[in-house]
Amino acid sequence: MISWRKHYKKGLIAIGLLLSTSASIYGQDGDPKNGEKLFKANCTACHALDKQVVGPALKGVVDRLKTEQGLDTDWLHKWIKDNKALRASGDKYANEVFEKFNKTEMQVFPNLADKDIDDILAYTTNPPVEEPKADPAATTATDTANAAPANNTTSSIVIISLIAIAGLLVWILVKLRQLVKLGQSEELTGLNETRVKSFSEIYEKYHYIGKGLLAVLAILATYGIWNWIMWIGVYKGYKPEQPIYFSHKIHAGENKIDCQLCHSSAKYGKVSEIPSMNVCMNCHRTISEYNGKYIEPGKDKAFYDGEIQKIYAATGWDAEKQQYTGKTTPVEWTRIHNMPDFVYFNHSQHVVAGEQAIINSFNKKNPDNKIDVVCKACHGKIDTMNVVQMANDFTMGWCIECHRTTEIDMNNGYNKEYFKNLHEKLKKQYPKDGGKITVDAIGGLECGKCHY
User: Fold this and answer.
1) Residue ranges of E strands in 336-434
2) 79, 151, 281, 407: which one has the fewest Cβ atoms less than 10 Å from its Cβ?
3) Element (H, E) at 324
4) Where in the sequence does UniProt note compositional bias of the Low complexity kind (predicted)?
């Protein structure tokens, strides 16, 4: 009897240990939904569930470590919180992982509580199943069925309209036949003999009117040729296709990426330059597929994923091995904005010195279409464009008009010091709007400012 109780007690203890170990192994003691949020906030820069990125794929990592290395979740807690300390302690597997992934140091997360880590591990073990999306084909079929009565009504209206048009044509033919018979009468025959029958006779009779019309036509032709010449090189609305599709709406609009993160030279150089592919790889080294909510009409996720693969092909990036192959392919971008060689334009002068003045002037002139970034004053609402286009004329007159209407902030440190001896003189010389000074007052219309 005592022996049976002893074995029963041991059995309960073993079952309890097995259940607790199993729960720990398979990550079921955490909340997968909360783990998903934590995973996306802390881990997705370097990890994915189903594939290697900077670090290994994490789906089933708890079970994999237990099976392959005999390690439990305590080791994962130590690794996630401070992998550097774990490696420094001489842990064999921690150092093997470090060597395997090119000695890329994982960020430490001392801020994550044990419960947070358990939630993340639960998500990697049993990720929540996404709700199935509505089938577009089924939706279309339903819409088509609902639209069937309306289509029948429309067909009836079209048939009635065609019958009415046919009747009208028959009536017109009858009237034309009557007119032909009338033209064969003796009265009309006599009138036809008195009519002018050649162009020369008409010209002799109405030569003053003819010369006047020719003069008007010559003036209109001259104006047309002049207008055509003046608009050579003006390509407002020009939006060519590029070798790699790049949506500014997704990057600058949906994801709020600062313009100067990619076009960094616009702030410190004459030209803004086209970002190199290495700039793209700063993000796309870990973003190998598109998972955004916004999808442009006519496009789908597969399309965007294919464009990301073009970036990898151009840079020679092997996403599976997470390393460069050395085989690169230049990307032949089609330039959109291109000033003539005889025009000098400095981006930094406008982006830095004139930034606030340009924004204030634009918003004052366009109260219903205000901007928050100086780039939009010239390039338009770039964060709403899927395909970039030339938003303005970029003619000499367009630039001059901006210089005449953009007020300078004479109170900023540079202008206040540089123009301190001229400030009062300029106020008297340009008394418009209570002494406000615009760009043209400080040389903004001098030819040598923009032309060599």
Assistant:
1) none
2) 151
3) strand 323-324
4) 135-146
Number of domain units in the chain:
3
Q: What is the pLDDT of residue 193?
A: 62
pTM: 0.63
**Residue type at 161 in one-letter notation:** S
Name the amino acid, one letter, at 74. Answer: D
Look up tokens 């709020």; give the residue.
Answer: 256
Residue 101 belongs to domain spanning: 2-125
State how far Cα 71 lies from the chain centre.
Answer: 45
Cα dihedral 352, 356, 362, 363 in deg (nearest 10): 150
Provide the 8-state DSSP code for 55.
Answer: S
Q: Of 267, 262, 265, whose CA–CA distance to 279 is shortest? A: 262
pLDDT given at position 56: 85
pLDDT at res. 112: 87
pLDDT of residue 246: 95
Question: Which structure tokens are listed for 433?
Answer: 């709007």
Beta bridge partners of 354: none
In this prediction, residue 389 carries a pLDDT of 94
Centre a 10 Å sphere on the Cβ of residue 213 and count the other Cβ atoms it contains: 11
Beta partners for residue 324, in sequence order: 317
Q: Containing H/E element for 73?
A: helix 73-88
Q: Is residue 31 part of a domain?
A: yes
CB atoms within 10 A of CB 199: 8
How much is the pLDDT for 16?
Answer: 45
* Domain harbouring 99, CATH code: 1.10.760.10
Task: Supply 412's token pair.
Answer: 């900023």
Q: Are 338 and 235 in contact (CB under 8 A)?
A: no
Q: Cβ distance 33 to 128 under 8 Å?
A: yes
pLDDT score, position 38? 86
| CA-based nearest residue to 48, from 27, 56, 20 | 56
**Residues in the chain, pLDDT under 70:** 1-29, 130-152, 181-199, 431-435
Last residue in a domain, options 105, 125, 145: 125
Question: What is the CA angle 10-11-12, rounded to 5?
Answer: 90
